[in-house]
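User: Predict the structure for this protein chain, please.
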Amino acid sequence: MAVAHYQFESIHPFYDGNGRTGRIVNVLYLIKEGLLDSPILYLSGHVIRHKGDYYRLLQEVRTEGRWRQWVAFVLEAVERTAVHTLETVEAIIELMEETVEQARTKLPRTSYSKELIELLFVQPYVKIVHLVEAGVAERRTASKYLKQLEAIGLLESYRVWKEQLFVNRRLVELLKRSS
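Assistant: Here is the predicted structure, written as C-alpha coordinates:
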Protein backbone atom coordinates (compact mmCIF):
# COMPACT_ATOMS: atom_id res chain seq x y z
CA MET A 1 0.00 0.00 0.00
CA ALA A 2 2.84 2.39 0.87
CA VAL A 3 4.53 1.74 -2.47
CA ALA A 4 1.28 2.17 -4.39
CA HIS A 5 0.57 5.41 -2.53
CA TYR A 6 4.02 6.76 -3.36
CA GLN A 7 3.59 5.81 -7.02
CA PHE A 8 0.18 7.46 -7.17
CA GLU A 9 1.50 10.64 -5.58
CA SER A 10 4.42 10.67 -8.01
CA ILE A 11 2.45 10.21 -11.24
CA HIS A 12 -0.93 11.78 -10.44
CA PRO A 13 -1.24 14.77 -12.81
CA PHE A 14 -3.24 17.16 -10.62
CA TYR A 15 -1.84 19.75 -8.23
CA ASP A 16 -4.79 19.64 -5.84
CA GLY A 17 -6.45 16.58 -4.40
CA ASN A 18 -3.59 14.13 -4.84
CA GLY A 19 -3.30 13.34 -1.14
CA ARG A 20 -6.98 12.85 -0.49
CA THR A 21 -7.41 10.73 -3.61
CA GLY A 22 -4.29 8.75 -2.78
CA ARG A 23 -5.56 8.06 0.73
CA ILE A 24 -8.86 6.85 -0.69
CA VAL A 25 -6.88 4.52 -2.95
CA ASN A 26 -5.13 3.24 0.20
CA VAL A 27 -8.43 2.33 1.83
CA LEU A 28 -9.68 0.66 -1.36
CA TYR A 29 -6.46 -1.33 -1.55
CA LEU A 30 -6.85 -2.53 2.06
CA ILE A 31 -10.42 -3.59 1.33
CA LYS A 32 -9.38 -5.36 -1.89
CA GLU A 33 -6.68 -7.26 0.00
CA GLY A 34 -9.17 -8.31 2.69
CA LEU A 35 -7.39 -6.32 5.40
CA LEU A 36 -10.29 -3.95 5.99
CA ASP A 37 -14.00 -4.82 5.89
CA SER A 38 -15.37 -1.32 5.37
CA PRO A 39 -13.90 2.08 4.47
CA ILE A 40 -13.55 3.29 8.03
CA LEU A 41 -9.81 4.00 8.22
CA TYR A 42 -9.30 7.76 7.80
CA LEU A 43 -5.56 8.20 7.25
CA SER A 44 -5.90 11.87 6.33
CA GLY A 45 -5.96 13.00 9.95
CA HIS A 46 -2.56 11.45 10.68
CA VAL A 47 -1.08 12.70 7.42
CA ILE A 48 -2.32 16.24 8.03
CA ARG A 49 -0.92 16.24 11.58
CA HIS A 50 2.45 15.05 10.22
CA LYS A 51 2.38 16.87 6.89
CA GLY A 52 6.03 17.97 7.06
CA ASP A 53 7.25 14.40 7.57
CA TYR A 54 4.86 13.13 4.89
CA TYR A 55 6.23 15.44 2.18
CA ARG A 56 9.82 15.09 3.35
CA LEU A 57 9.63 11.29 3.22
CA LEU A 58 7.95 11.31 -0.20
CA GLN A 59 10.78 13.52 -1.45
CA GLU A 60 13.44 11.33 0.14
CA VAL A 61 12.07 8.28 -1.70
CA ARG A 62 12.33 10.27 -4.95
CA THR A 63 15.79 11.65 -4.38
CA GLU A 64 17.51 9.12 -2.10
CA GLY A 65 15.50 5.90 -2.47
CA ARG A 66 14.66 5.90 1.27
CA TRP A 67 11.83 3.40 1.06
CA ARG A 68 12.26 1.95 4.55
CA GLN A 69 11.48 5.28 6.26
CA TRP A 70 8.50 5.88 3.96
CA VAL A 71 7.01 2.44 4.57
CA ALA A 72 7.58 2.84 8.33
CA PHE A 73 5.74 6.20 8.23
CA VAL A 74 2.76 4.65 6.40
CA LEU A 75 2.65 1.66 8.77
CA GLU A 76 2.71 3.99 11.77
CA ALA A 77 -0.11 6.04 10.21
CA VAL A 78 -2.19 2.88 9.73
CA GLU A 79 -1.50 1.65 13.27
CA ARG A 80 -2.26 4.95 15.01
CA THR A 81 -5.31 5.58 12.86
CA ALA A 82 -6.63 2.05 13.47
CA VAL A 83 -6.26 2.44 17.24
CA HIS A 84 -7.92 5.87 17.15
CA THR A 85 -10.73 4.57 14.93
CA LEU A 86 -11.37 1.62 17.25
CA GLU A 87 -11.54 3.97 20.25
CA THR A 88 -14.00 6.20 18.37
CA VAL A 89 -16.20 3.26 17.37
CA GLU A 90 -16.21 2.01 20.96
CA ALA A 91 -17.18 5.49 22.19
CA ILE A 92 -20.03 5.63 19.65
CA ILE A 93 -21.27 2.21 20.78
CA GLU A 94 -21.14 3.35 24.41
CA LEU A 95 -23.03 6.55 23.56
CA MET A 96 -25.61 4.54 21.66
CA GLU A 97 -26.11 2.24 24.64
CA GLU A 98 -26.53 5.28 26.94
CA THR A 99 -29.05 6.73 24.48
CA VAL A 100 -30.98 3.46 24.39
CA GLU A 101 -31.13 3.43 28.20
CA GLN A 102 -32.25 7.06 28.42
CA ALA A 103 -34.92 6.52 25.79
CA ARG A 104 -36.11 3.34 27.47
CA THR A 105 -36.44 5.00 30.87
CA LYS A 106 -37.74 8.43 29.82
CA LEU A 107 -39.98 7.77 26.82
CA PRO A 108 -43.39 6.15 26.72
CA ARG A 109 -42.98 2.48 25.86
CA THR A 110 -44.81 2.96 22.56
CA SER A 111 -42.35 5.67 21.43
CA TYR A 112 -39.13 3.75 21.89
CA SER A 113 -37.68 1.24 19.45
CA LYS A 114 -34.22 -0.11 18.76
CA GLU A 115 -34.59 0.86 15.08
CA LEU A 116 -35.39 4.46 16.04
CA ILE A 117 -32.31 4.81 18.25
CA GLU A 118 -30.06 3.13 15.67
CA LEU A 119 -31.25 5.64 13.09
CA LEU A 120 -29.99 8.47 15.33
CA PHE A 121 -26.47 7.08 14.83
CA VAL A 122 -26.48 6.55 11.08
CA GLN A 123 -25.47 10.18 10.72
CA PRO A 124 -25.39 13.09 13.19
CA TYR A 125 -28.84 14.36 12.22
CA VAL A 126 -32.17 12.87 11.28
CA LYS A 127 -35.26 14.15 9.53
CA ILE A 128 -38.83 12.96 9.74
CA VAL A 129 -38.53 11.50 6.27
CA HIS A 130 -35.61 9.30 7.43
CA LEU A 131 -37.88 7.59 9.95
CA VAL A 132 -40.58 7.18 7.34
CA GLU A 133 -38.18 5.75 4.74
CA ALA A 134 -36.69 3.35 7.30
CA GLY A 135 -40.18 2.07 8.15
CA VAL A 136 -39.91 3.20 11.77
CA ALA A 137 -43.09 5.28 11.69
CA GLU A 138 -45.52 7.19 9.52
CA ARG A 139 -44.90 10.92 9.11
CA ARG A 140 -47.06 12.20 11.98
CA THR A 141 -45.82 9.55 14.41
CA ALA A 142 -42.21 10.10 13.31
CA SER A 143 -42.57 13.79 14.09
CA LYS A 144 -43.97 12.94 17.53
CA TYR A 145 -41.09 10.53 18.26
CA LEU A 146 -38.44 13.08 17.29
CA LYS A 147 -40.07 15.80 19.38
CA GLN A 148 -40.18 13.43 22.35
CA LEU A 149 -36.48 12.67 21.90
CA GLU A 150 -35.84 16.40 21.82
CA ALA A 151 -37.92 16.94 24.95
CA ILE A 152 -35.74 14.52 26.94
CA GLY A 153 -32.54 16.13 25.62
CA LEU A 154 -31.35 13.48 23.20
CA LEU A 155 -31.86 15.64 20.09
CA GLU A 156 -31.85 19.34 19.22
CA SER A 157 -34.03 20.59 16.39
CA TYR A 158 -33.16 23.25 13.84
CA ARG A 159 -35.24 24.68 11.06
CA VAL A 160 -33.34 24.72 7.74
CA TRP A 161 -35.43 26.19 4.95
CA LYS A 162 -38.66 24.18 5.05
CA GLU A 163 -37.14 21.19 6.78
CA GLN A 164 -36.68 20.45 10.43
CA LEU A 165 -33.43 18.70 11.31
CA PHE A 166 -32.99 16.84 14.57
CA VAL A 167 -29.33 16.79 15.57
CA ASN A 168 -27.75 14.19 17.80
CA ARG A 169 -25.56 16.80 19.55
CA ARG A 170 -23.70 14.29 21.73
CA LEU A 171 -22.73 12.31 18.62
CA VAL A 172 -21.59 15.52 16.89
CA GLU A 173 -19.44 16.42 19.91
CA LEU A 174 -17.94 12.94 20.06
CA LEU A 175 -17.08 13.06 16.35
CA LYS A 176 -15.53 16.54 16.73
CA ARG A 177 -13.33 15.34 19.58
CA SER A 178 -12.30 12.32 17.54
CA SER A 179 -11.17 14.17 14.45
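The chain has two domains: 2-85, 107-178.
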